[in-house]
Amino acid sequence: MTAEIILFYLFAFLVCAGAISVAVSQSIVRMAFSLVLTLGSTAVLFLLLGADFVGATQLLVYVGGTLVLLVFGVMLTATGPFTRIKSSAADGILSGLIGVVFLFIVASTVTSVDWDGGKGVAQKIAYGSHAKAVEGGFNPAQQGNTTRSLGLSFLSIRADRDLRPGVPPAVTEQTNATLVVPGAPSAAMPGMSPPPKSPAPLSTGYLLPFEIVSVHLLVVLVGAAYLARTKRRAAVRS
């Protein structure tokens, strides 16, 4: 077992422990600390998976922005210092049902992905400096479904167009049946200059988590505006 795998399991445990602490704790201070632990560990998981940009965005948006906004919102709107939150039995049942639904979605995604099959889901035949994709290597109707594609997208893998291990999927572009690898040397036609090199992408995949972060930030901003408006109305009435 390598050090990377040990760190992955360690921070995955911290994510789960922090999330459970946020759900069961009644102290806002403990919730905030547990949320910092969960979000920070999630950012480390992204960094371990090679998504440096998404990991940095996780730290900046969630830990550095959303959590600070949440703490200040609680401090400004709470009626007393260190307010304790008491939830009813109905709230616990509803949150438990929602958690079970999300657990089922995640479990079905994990079990539907062929983790031991490698990242190459499309066969490739190399001709010199070019690579040609063989059609029929991926059949969504027989080999995949929505959850499988979602799981592969979290791994920065396009199930319908993937490369063999060693060639990053994020730096490839596919046009019909021909796969062009930007930056690779290609045989130029007589009288023609070679194509310019394309810069490597900044996000290295993981587009879905990045979009979730942006939507979450929008929701937090709307919630902060709503809390400020409610506080202003209460002050005017008093």
Protein model, in words:
Residues 121-138, 140-146, 163-189 and 199-204 have low confidence and may be disordered. Helix content is 58%, strand content 6%. The chain folds into two domains: 3-86 and 207-237, Four Helix Bundle (Hemerythrin (Met), subunit A) (Up-down Bundle); 119-180, no CATH class. The protein is globular. Helix 2 packs antiparallel against helix 3. The longest helix has 31 residues, at 207-237. It has a four-stranded antiparallel sheet with strand order 1-2-4-3, with no helix packed on it. It is mainly alpha-helical.
Topology diagram in text:
Blueprint: H1 3-24, H2 28-48, H3 52-77, H4 89-112, E1 124-127, E2 130-133, H5 140-143, H6 146-154, E3 173-175, E4 178-180, H7 207-237
Antiparallel strand pairs: 1-2, 2-4, 3-4
Helix pairs in contact: 1-2, 2-3, 3-7, 4-6
- Give the N-to-C terminal Cα separation: 63 Å
* Main sheet record: 4 strands, antiparallel
The string of secondary-structure elements, in order, is HHHHEEHHEEH
Strand order of the largest sheet: 1-2-4-3
Instruction: Give the total of beta strands.
Output: 4
Total helical segments: 7
What is the CATH domain class of the largest domain? Mainly Alpha
Mean pLDDT: 67
**Tally of separate domains:** 2
Share in helix: 55-70%
What CATH architecture of the largest domain would you give?
Answer: Up-down Bundle
What structural class do helix, strand and pairing data support? mainly alpha
- Measured by DSSP, the beta-strand proportion falls in 5-15%
User: What would the CATH topology of the largest domain be?
Assistant: Four Helix Bundle (Hemerythrin (Met), subunit A)
Q: State the shape.
A: globular
User: Stretches where pLDDT falls below 50 for ≥5 residues?
Assistant: 121-138, 140-146, 163-189, 199-204
Radius of gyration over C-alpha positions, nearest whole angstrom? 23 Å
Assembly state of the chains shown: single chain
Full CATH superfamily name of the largest domain: NADH-ubiquinone/plastoquinone oxidoreductase chain 6, subunit NuoJ
